[in-house]
Amino acid sequence: MEVQVSTFGAAILKVVVPDKAGRKADVVLGYGTVDEYETASPVTYFGVVVGRVANRIANARFSLGGVEYRLLANNGPNALHGGLKGLHKRRWEGRKVHDADGNESVQLHYTSPEGEEGYPGTLHVHVTYTLLRHANELHTSIVATTDEATPVNIAQHSYFNLAGHASGTILGHKLRLVGADHYTPVGATLIPTGEIAPVAGTPFDFTSPQTIGSRIDKVPGAAPGGYDHNFVLFGMGPQAKFITKHGMASDKPKLAATLVDPASGRAMDVLTTAPGVQFYSGNFLDGTSVGKGGVRYGKHAGLCLETQGFPNAINEPKFPGIVLEPQDTYHHEIVYRFYNV
Where are the transmembrane segments (predicted)? Predict the structure, then answer.
């Protein structure tokens, strides 16, 4: 297994894993050069770390401590993934380290100053990627501290295609979301309505393995259609607000999703400490993004499983809170485990 990481955007550039016949392929979408990550239009967020607040904030504004903060609207009327120059557009400090067991890590750090992209407080963010070769696991640790109360919801935004990044669509992949018996329905601009709704009897039911393309045409919503929704993990459902401190669902990563490509036999488990996962089926990819090796990524060329707090949680009191206080530490753990079936 091989993983390549960039200090620009703390991006995962490449993940190479074998299939059931031992043939290796790069299973994440991305660009070939850092320049392309800097200048890409439209912004695709291939493999980067997004924040301070991942996902959408309604009407690009929120109130905290009696003060209203206005953000840049970069997704219709809403703020998306931390703004135009969120964590995904920053150059991080990085170094490579080894442990006694032969595992390799890349440690990255970025300081987001007071007022950057409209957010209060100075935020220190540390991301560590660790490759456990013996287990074919990539561990991601995201830690943040602040000197002033501020919303924090940082996510890893890799697009996966287990058949290989240049292989076509992910519609034949099978997905299971563990304990995700509820999701958060959205309105016209993909902002959650505030409801935490059951998935039973809907195209959102992935509590058992389902082929992604089998019901994608039945997902309600305007063009381009498809999945771009937050699922409530671990059977928490409407009780999602009764979770651990700092917006996490647990202190240690738990199995949240299993993805399988039947053709290649490659499979991936996603483990996380976060209470939600945004399943995005690559609906807005339209062939204009030219990736590694000159590949044009079309609709559904990859999918994202962004473990996170809930979208617009800063404005929705029913959702688990995402405000980080100066005396606390934000700690989000993710594991991508690869194997063959």
Answer: none
Task: Based on the residue annotation, tell me whether 157 is a catalytic residue of this protein.
Answer: yes
CA distances from 158 to 48, 120, 122, 242, 302 (A): 7, 27, 26, 28, 9
DSSP collapsed to 3 states, 290-339: ECHHHCEECCCCCEEEEEECCCCHHHCCCCCCCEECCCCCEEEEEEEEEE
In percent, the amount of the chain with pLDDT more than 90 equals: 89
Binding region: 55-56, 157-159, 228
What's domain 2-340's architecture? Distorted Sandwich (2.70)
The structural domains of the chain, with segments of one domain joined by +, span 2-340
| pLDDT exceeds cutoff 80 at 169 | yes
Q: Is pTM, for the whole model, over 0.85?
A: yes
Active site residue 116: no
Nearest to 266 by CA among 129, 170, 158, 155: 170
Q: What is the pLDDT of residues 69-102, one digit of tens each?
A: 999 999 999 999 999 999 999 999 999 999 888 8
Structure token pair of residue 285: 């990819």
Task: List binding-site positions for beta-D-galactose.
Answer: 55-56, 157-159, 228
Q: Which of 116, 117, 306, 333 is catalytic?
A: 306
Q: Above 80 in pLDDT, residue 255?
A: yes
